[in-house]
């Protein structure tokens, strides 16, 4: 196997510039919301030129797409790790719910962006990369579900329906907490796992 070649100075500078723009975009979004997430605001916050932003990302939507891709990958990775360390389907559901809600609590600004209308818009207009990341990260979750379907623990429903039953309630609670703040995520982490488990378990118990 070939060893990885060291990064050239030009590549390193490009990576540093990309990180500066991505970090600045998140700060701008946290401070000014969707309406404030503009090219001029990001270039001011990052100290990076307009030309560099367009060179690396093509547009503000390209930048937001890259930011979403980065953090969606991290979220799905944490969910995959959570279920991968579980001993059975029921504890896996509990681990997944707690990992998702824990991520939202730990990264509220990122989570607000991931659950925002801006994310929906970018996902519709430039969704291939986001879908690629999701599909690349979903196999551990999908294989975990299928394994427990084969064992008779999880009901043999379609993958899309199982995904909706597993993640739909968690996403809904997260959106409400991020927008209205009238949900207790710690309480949700205690209650949702059993409710979700009843909806997908093979025996309904």
UniProtKB/TrEMBL annotation:
The keyword NAD does not apply. Keywords: DNA-binding. Residues 38-57 bind DNA. Pfam families: TetR_N (PF00440). Residues 15-75 form the HTH tetR-type domain. PROSITE patterns: HTH_TETR_2. InterPro entries: Homeodomain-like_sf, HTH-type_TetR-like_transc_reg, HTH_TetR, Tet_transcr_reg_TetR-rel_C_sf. Gene3D superfamilies: Tetracycline Repressor, domain 2. PANTHER family: HTH-TYPE TRANSCRIPTIONAL REGULATOR RUTR, TRANSCRIPTIONAL REGULATORY PROTEIN. This is TetR/AcrR family transcriptional regulator.
């Amino acid at each position: 196997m070939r060893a990885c070649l060291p990064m050239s100075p030009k590549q390193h500078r490009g990576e540093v510039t990309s990180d500066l723009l991505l970090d600045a975009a998140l700060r701008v979004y946290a401070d000014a919301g969707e309406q404030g997430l503009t090219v001029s605001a990001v270039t001011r916050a990052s100290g990076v030129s307009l030309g560099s932003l367009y060179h690396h990302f093509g547009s503000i939507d390209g930048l937001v797409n890259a930011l979403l891709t980065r953090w969606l990958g991290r979220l799905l990775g944490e969910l995959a790790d959570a279920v991968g360390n579980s001993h059975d389907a029921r504890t896996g559901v509990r681990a997944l719910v707690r990992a998702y809600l824990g991520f939202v609590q730990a990264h509220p600004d990122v989570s607000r962006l991931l659950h925002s209308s801006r994310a929906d818009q970018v996902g519709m207009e430039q969704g291939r990369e986001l879908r690629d990341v999701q599909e690349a990260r979903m196999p551990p979750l999908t294989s975990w579900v299928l394994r427990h379907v084969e064992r008779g623990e999880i009901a043999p429903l379609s993958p899309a329906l199982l995904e909706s039953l597993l993640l739909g309630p968690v996403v809904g609670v997260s959106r409400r907490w991020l927008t209205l703040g009238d949900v207790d995520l710690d309480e949700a982490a205690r209650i949702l796992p059993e409710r979700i488990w009843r909806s997908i378990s093979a025996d309904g118990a």
